[in-house]
């Protein structure tokens, strides 16, 4: 497909400013990549990055992950590659991945495979960053889904604009603005069938719940959820720092454990974070390390009545010994 002439057309200024704000500290010649599926959000990001990258004298490219989940996946990837090249991105890579089903579902498995591909590409190309096309609408959906799971401040803080080498310049922009920008150059985006498949929770939230919320509470609902995530992120960062300060104040935690009397003095919000920090540092697998595990460990501190050790993911146990809380190996 031939793009409409864009020699005199640039992306909306809001998109340009969002991308430039995250790329302006890079040096001329640095390579940045856009994660592009061929969908509307990522194509708009590819276009904007090509324009802004040229202005900043950056090398720009794209990484297209072929999940091989639909029969036409190779064709979709090839078309996305062609579109990225037509938009002006010079180094466009396609990576095929094998999605291994997990207990958390196909969507989570695809995400794991995708980020593994990203890490490989970052290493191979020495790219300074990968830009992701999440929007404010995606953030609002994420916060709502996590809210229904009884999540804490860390989880409800949602996605961040900058997470290591992953950048999300559109995170505070509405999806409609991003999609409408493609009309300026007549660019047709791929419609992922998974985006209309209601076996996925996110699709049900996007198609059923979000429109109803906006209808009842108003258009500002989306930006308010985004703001809530930002405020929770600030609160969580402060609590995490206080928890880490407490851990650092303890003398050789791996040998001596955590002093029970000192733990009892801490506010619960800080104490539970201390328990998580020390658990992960002792070898507990962070993914399946749940709030229920933290509650059981905290009971060894605040509700001690001689109960046994707490089994944790990664063959680790939490135990109370001689006035201290310790994390020990359960392997024999």
Would you tell me the overall average pLDDT? 91
Helix-strand makeup class: alpha/beta
CATH superfamily of the largest domain: HUPs
Q: Which CATH class of the largest domain applies here? A: Alpha Beta
What would CATH call the architecture of the largest domain?
3-Layer(aba) Sandwich
Total domain count: 2
Distance between the termini: 63 Å
Beta strands, count: 10
Portion of residues in beta strands equals 5-15%
CATH topology of the largest domain: Rossmann fold
What is the makeup of the main sheet? Answer: 6 strands, mixed
Give an overview of the whole structure.
This protein is α/β, with parallel strands linked by helices and 332 residues long. The chain folds into two domains: 13-143 and 158-199, HUPs (Rossmann fold); 251-329, Uridine Diphospho-n-acetylenolpyruvylglucosamine Reductase, domain 3, CATH 3.30.465. 50% of the residues lie in helices and 13% in strands. The protein has helices at 13-23, 40-55, 73-87, 106-125, 136-147, 153-156, 175-181, 201-217, 221-249, 253-256, 260-265, 268-281, 291-302; strands spanning 31-35, 59-66, 91-96, 129-131, 162-163, 166-167, 258-259, 310-312, 316-321, 324-329. The strands form two sheets. It has a six-stranded mixed β-sheet, sandwiched between helices. A four-stranded antiparallel β-sheet has the order 7-10-9-8. Helix 9 (221-249) packs across helix 12. The chain is elongated, with a radius of gyration of 23 Å. The protein starts with 12 loop residues before the first helix and ends with a strand.
């Amino acid at each position: 497909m031939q793009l409409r002439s864009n020699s005199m057309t640039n992306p909306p200024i809001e998109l340009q400013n969002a991308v430039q704000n995250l790329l302006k500290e890079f040096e001329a010649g640095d390579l940045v990549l856009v994660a592009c599926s061929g969908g509307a959000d990522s194509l708009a990001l590819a276009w904007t990055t090509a324009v802004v990258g040229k202005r900043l004298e950056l090398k720009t490219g794209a990484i297209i992950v072929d999940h091989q989940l639909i029969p036409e996946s190779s064709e979709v990837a090839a078309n996305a590659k062609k579109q990225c090249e037509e938009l002006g991105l010079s180094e466009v890579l396609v990576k095929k991945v094998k999605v291994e089903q997990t207990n958390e579902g196909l969507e989570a498995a695809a995400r794991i495979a995708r980020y593994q591909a990203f890490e490989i590409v970052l290493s191979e190309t020495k790219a300074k960053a990968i830009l992701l096309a999440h929007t404010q609408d995606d953030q609002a959906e994420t916060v709502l889904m996590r809210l229904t799971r009884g999540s804490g401040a860390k989880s409800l803080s949602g996605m961040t604009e900058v997470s290591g080498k992953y950048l999300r310049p559109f995170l505070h922009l509405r999806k409609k603005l991003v999609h409408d920008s493609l009309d300026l150059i007549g660019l047709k985006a791929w419609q992922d069938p998974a985006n209309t498949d209601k076996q996925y929770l996110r699709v049900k939230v996007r198609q059923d719940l979000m429109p109803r919320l906006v209808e009842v509470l108003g258009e500002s609902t989306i930006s308010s959820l985004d703001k809530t995530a930002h405020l929770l992120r600030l609160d969580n960062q402060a609590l995490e720092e206080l928890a880490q300060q407490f851990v650092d104040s303890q003398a050789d935690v791996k040998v001596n454990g955590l002093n029970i009397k000192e733990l009892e003095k801490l506010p619960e919000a800080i104490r539970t974070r201390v328990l998580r920090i020390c658990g992960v540092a002792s070898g507990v697998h962070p993914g399946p390390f749940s709030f229920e595990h933290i509650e059981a460990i905290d009971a060894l501190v605040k509700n001690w009545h001689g109960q046994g050790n707490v089994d944790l993911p990664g063959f680790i146990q939490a135990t109370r010994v001689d006035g201290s809380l310790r994390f020990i190996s359960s392997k024999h």
